[in-house]
Structure formats: C-alpha cells, structure tokens
Amino acid sequence: MHNPSGFERDWSSLGLYFTGVEAEQLRQIYRHFRARHYCYCSFENRFAKSGGLAAVTVNILPYTQALGLYQSVQLFTPYYPHLMDADRLQKTGHEWLVPFADSLIQTELYQFIPPNQASAQNGMKEYYIKADGYFNAQNAIGDPYLYYPGQPVENQKALVENSLFFCQAVPYALQALGLEEGSVLHLQEWQTALLALTGKQAMLSGIVKSCLSMITLHNPYDAFLSCAALQKVVPREKADHVSRFLYSGATAYQIGLSLIDAPITTVSDTFAQEFTQDALQTVHFTPHLQSYFLKNGVRGVNNGPFISFSNQFPKKENHTLHELREIKLKNRHQLLQILDAYQPTERFGELSWRRGPLADLPDDVPILVMSGRLDLMQKGFDVLLSALEKFSQDEIKAVLTPMPVRAADLDYFYQVACKCRGNLTVFPMRMKEGYAELQAGSTFGLMPSIYEPFGAAIEYMANGTVTIARATGGLIDQIEANVSGLLYREPVDAASPEGIKAFMSTPIAALRKQNAWFNAMADSLADCLIQASALYRNQPDRYYAMVQQGFLQASRFSWSKTAESYASLVRQVAPFSSDFHSEKGVQ
C-alpha cells in the first residue's frame, strides 16, 4: 500500500513507555537526526540459516555500502555457539555488561570478514554478539530459531528470552564501536522489533546519542511478550508505568510497529498488499496488526536474486529456442544419471520408467522438483503430495528435497512415495551431489506456497527451469503468468475463515485432507500440472520461450535496486549526513 501523504510517526504511542518530558527529548533528537551508519539487525546470518533472511542478510550489505550514503555499514546478529565455527570469527576486543533481568550479563563482540574481500576496510563489517547462556539454539539443520525441537511452547519461551536480550545488547554494541550518533537500525522480523523501544531508551539514558529504527517483515509470525518479560529490558522505574498501560502485555510487533521511525516494509509488492487484503493474513496471522498497517501502509521492497545465472546458459535470454532445447535436454540426461546413481541412505521413493530403468525415460515426460525447508504452515509440500496422488504411473516424475525438523513430518511423504511408486523420490536432507543438476535439469520447479513473502522463483528461472507457483505474495511479482512461468489459484470461495483456521491449526499433513481449502489447493495444483505437462509435451516452442523469458524476468531483480529502495525510505524521514556538504569528512 502507498500512502501519498508519506510516513507519519506515531508520537502518541510514546506515552505508553515514556513520560511527556522524555517524549519531547526524543522529538528534539529526531528533529536533528542525520543518517550516518546502517546497522542491519537479524537473527539469521551466513552461519545460521532458516529461510530466505540469511541470504538477504549476506547480499544486502555490500550493495548498501556501494550506495555511498552511509559512513559505515554493518550487521548485528547473535553468535550461536552450537551452530557456528568459532575459528571463522575474530574477537574485536569489545566487551561490556548488559543490564538484563536484574543482572549484568557479560557480553562480547566478534566479527567476520568475508574472505578475499576488502569490505571491512571500506566500512562494512559483520558483528556477532556473544554472551554465555544466550543464543544456544541447537538442532540438526542449523536453524537459529530452534532451541527445543518438538517442544513449541518451550522453544517460544527461549526465543522470546533471547530476543529480549539481543534488543537490550545492541545499543551497547553501538556505543562500544563508536556508532552512537546517526545509526539507522534496520530491524528484521519480530525477534529484533523491540529495538524500536530499547534504542529510544538508550538515547534517553545516554548510551547512544541518536538512532532511528525501520523494520522489514519477512514473515507474519509474531510473539507475545508479557509485562513480566518486558520488565527485563524496561528500567525498573518504568516497569509500573508500562504495566499500567499494557495490562497483560503486547506482541513484539505491536510494540515495535507503534514505535517505528520509518515506513513498515516487507519483501515484495504483492505481499505488502496481502497484509491488509488477503484473508490468511487478516483472519489468521495479523488481525492484531491491521491498525498499524492501515495507518501508513506497508511498502513492498522486492528482494534481489539469491543465486547467479547458471553458466549452462551463457547467453541467457539471447539463446535461440533450439539452443535452449539442446542445453535443457543435456542437463536432463545428466540429472537422470545422477538420480540413478546417487542413493544416500536417507533417500526413499523410487523413480522408474515402465518399472524399468529411469535412464529410458522419454524426453517428453516432465520432471518436477520442489526444494526447501519443510514448513507445513507455509511451503505446501503436503499440497503437492496430495496432487501427485492423482497421477497414474509414468505420467510425471517428481523429486522433492524437503528439510524436515521432525522425523514424523515425513510420514505423509512415505505414504505417497509408496502409493506413487515409480513417480516420486524424496531426498530429506542437504544433497551432497546432484542439487545443481536437479535445479537445471528438471522441467518445472514447484512452489505451491500457502503464503510467500518473496520466494525463490527466480532461482529456478536463473537455472533455465520454468516455475509453477500458487499465485500468492512475491511469486506474483516474480512470475509473469503464461510468459515466464505458470500461476494457479484455487477458487476464492474455497478459503473460508473457518477453513483457514482449521487448516492452520492442523499441522499434520494427512489430517488436512479433510479440509476443503486444502483439497481445493491440491485440485488446482493438479489441474495446473496436467496443463503444464501438455504444454511441455505438445508445445515445446512455447515451453522453451518460457525458459527464455524466465532469464529476462530474473534479470529485472537486483540487490542494488533493493538497497536504493530502503535508502529512499530512510530519506523520507531523515536526511543523510552525506546530503550536507558542509559536514567535514563526508563526501
């Protein structure tokens, strides 16, 4: 959504947390604020990954630095002792005590300098906040949000605790590094949202001189913070004041969005609209945030590409259709060889042709691929499995590479692999070989997402593979329907509020087959797969034209555009110090 009048800071919300005198102090600070330092705050980083945020984190910093608007660019992120290799990080020598929950927590700062890069010397660094007893996420897939796999209540408690500590610690890191003035804190997800509060507290207490908070929502997930939990980061003399106004508490986003200093952003134009227009958001995920979204709107800032174009297609969209066909068939045959030979112990499900060798598979039988984390609340793996059950043997071939957290989440995969023997194989782990061939040699990449803030459709496009996706979120922004890929959607009336709530409250794939919305999504996907198979078999030129257009579409996304868009939003609320030529030392 776009608000033509621009962003208006909600000064009235300051009364929930600050006295009238303090609110006026903050007004004066912001009146003279000049943006000098860009501080990206994320619970994901290059060593600890869950979804796409880790890739965004790695990509956005150098392009922001290249704008030349900030004196320095840095990442602030947790140090996860069980997920990271300490030998790859360096101590900075900065240590301090963080007041937290009536204790003083010894905290230190590490840094990472990317190999073969001079970025650190040019003002760009990655900082990792370390404190004993915190950020102890530990799991087989290296997910920074998983402290107690299989125990959601305990896991959420741990996440909240670590979020509160991180938001309390970052202002002290700014002080230690000499970034006390003009820091733009770019907050990512609810885990860092409370910095909109602790940053202001730090200004009033003199820890920092000035900082400004902006926020990007990559997912709609939120977390409730009780007043008892908030008292761990609120000064003791303010605890009663905050409790009196917030009663039992509030969510991280309710606090963060009420105190944010710049427009709310998310990672695609369409997802920004869906926050206030799509029933899944307004009914299930974000009904409690609608007033914040509607006041100033949500701005979509599209991500850039997460991978480079495949070197299999050196001319990209300038290849002729005949050249594209020759390359794709070569990649396909290489993939078939790997699928025949690569048999890790985790793999299950059989691929064959007429119960014989897969190597005999005719060129006109489509090969489908779906990859990514096994998130039953978002990615739609179970929707695809239900759709695959509708196909007879040898109509299509499917390769799935889900990353499960719990072994039980694979139960439905095993059931469908047995029922669809010959049509489906599953690699429930990180493939040590063949992943690149899978991306480039498959016919269609599948993204049947329940919702998708941005997604990775351009990842398939960059590999010369046509994407089939549910028409939701950033997938709509990435795919031009029937030109660079195929979009489908179930009938509008299939998703009733009751059906949505029932679906989201049933995270067991097999039980969802009783849900009308689930079945409508599966039926619509199956119909799209039938159409896609016919297109590939009977209209090869049209298929390869889609491959060609996919390269062109993918090239329209860039991290430089992303960085420029975020900078333009900062300029709406505060000038850059580089905008003032009279300031010494700033170009």
What oligomeric state do these chains adopt?
A: single chain
- Tally of DSSP helical segments: 20
| CATH class call of the largest domain | Alpha Beta
Shape: globular
**How is the largest sheet built, in terms of strand order?**
3-4-5-2-1-6-7-10-11
Number of strands: 17
State mean pLDDT (0 to 100 scale).
92
* Whole-number count of domains: 2
Calculate Rg over CA atoms. 25 Å
Largest sheet: 9 strands, mixed
CATH superfamily of the largest domain: Glycogen Phosphorylase B
Keywords:
Rossmann fold; six-stranded parallel sheet; disordered N terminus; globular; 587 residues; 20 helices
Would you give an account of this structure?
The chain is an alpha/beta fold and 587 residues long. Helix content is 39%, strand content 16%. It folds into two domains: 11-304 and 561-579, Rossmann fold (3-Layer(aba) Sandwich); 331-557, Glycogen Phosphorylase B (Rossmann fold), CATH 3.40.50.2000. The chain has helices at 20-31, 53-66, 152-177, 195-205, 227-230, 236-246, 252-259, 269-277, 279-285, 290-296, 321-341, 381-388, 411-419, 435-441, 457-462, 474-478, 497-504, 516-538, 540-554, 559-573; strands spanning 37-41, 72-78, 90-100, 103-112, 124-130, 183-188, 211-217, 224-226, 249-251, 264-266, 298-300, 367-373, 397-403, 424-426, 444-447, 466-470, 485-488. It has a nine-stranded mixed β-sheet, sandwiched between helices. A six-stranded parallel β-sheet has the order 14-13-12-15-16-17, sandwiched between helices. Helix 2 packs across helix 20. The protein is globular, with a radius of gyration of 25 Å. The two termini are 34 Å apart.
